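step 3/5: co-fold with manganese (II) ion
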Amino acid sequence: MRDRLKDVYNIVQEVNVLDSQDAANLALLSRPELGVTFTKLHCWRLVQFEKCVFLDADTLVLQNCDELFEREELSAAPDVSWPDCFNSGVFVYKPSVETFTQITEFAIKNGSFDGGDQGLLNQYFADWATADIKKHLPFVYNVTAYASYCYLPAFKQFRDKIKILHFAGKLKPWLLQFNSESKQVSVSSDYAHAKDLIQLWWNIFCDKVHQSLSDNMQTQGTASSDNSTTHKSFNNEAGLAGALSQLQIGQQRSPEQEAYENLMRRQCWESGQIDYSGADSFDNIWKKISQTLEAKPAEKEADQTGSS
Ligand code: GLC
Ligand code: MN
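step 4/5: write C-alpha cells
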C-alpha cells in the first residue's frame, strides 16, 4: 500500500500511532475507534514545509483550494454540532517541532475532552472561537455530508460552492452498498442529498484506485493466524484494501462474487454501526464469508435464516 501511495504522493511518511487511550471520553462520542486520531499530530513535524493544510482521509476535495495557504495557523471551519469548536478534519497550520512538542505535552497533562484530536486541538488553540475571524474558514471548506449533521436546504442552495466535503461520522462512502457490476452505490436516507457526490467518490475509486489494489494488502492489526477456513479466492488476512480489491468492477457477477458482495453488504457495508475492533473486525467478517462460501447449500440456508 505504501508503494501505491508513493505513486501518487510526493512524500509518504510513516509515523508511529499515537493513541489517547481515553475510553471514557471516547464513549461520550460513541466512537471508541477515534483514540488513534492523535496520530494526526505528527503533521506538525513536516518542517520541510512552511505551511500546510491538513485533510482527513474521509474528505473529498471538489474544487481547487490553494487560497487556503494564505491563512494562518490555526485556521479551520466551525464544527456543525458545536460551532464554537472548529472541526479538525480540515485545518491550516504551520509545521514546527516546537508546536508538536507543546501539543503532545499539553495532551499528556490535560487529555482531550472528546478523546480524539478535535477535543485536544480545540483545547490547545482555545481562543479560536473569539480571537480572529480570519482563522474561521468558510464552511464550504469542510462541509459535513451526513444528514443528521447537515442543514439540507443550505446544502441544496450552496452545493456548487462546496470545496471540500467531509464524510465525518461512522458511515463512510466505502461502507455503503456498492454494486460492482453496475458501478452504482446505494445510499441510505441519511446520505440521499449527497448521492451524486458519494457516487463521485466511487467513480474515482473505480477509475483510479481499484486496479492498483491487490488482495495481499495486509492492514496492520487485521492479520489472523487462522487460515484454515479461508476460501481459495478470498484472503482473510487482507484488510479493507484487500477486500475492495476483490470487487470485479464492471463485470457480470459470478454467483460466488455476488455471495461475497452480499455478505459484505449484510455484515458491514449496510450498517453504519460498525464495531471495527470487535464483532465486525475484518478477521471475523472474513471467517464468516469463507465459512458461508464453503458451506453446503443446505447449511447456508439454515445459517441465513438463523442469523438474519
Ligand atoms: C471529528 C473530526 C475528526 C476528528 C474526530 C476526533 O470526527 O471530524 O477530524 O479526528 O472528531 O476528535
Ligand atoms: Mn474525518
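step 5/5: annotate
The chain is about 35% helix and 10% strand.
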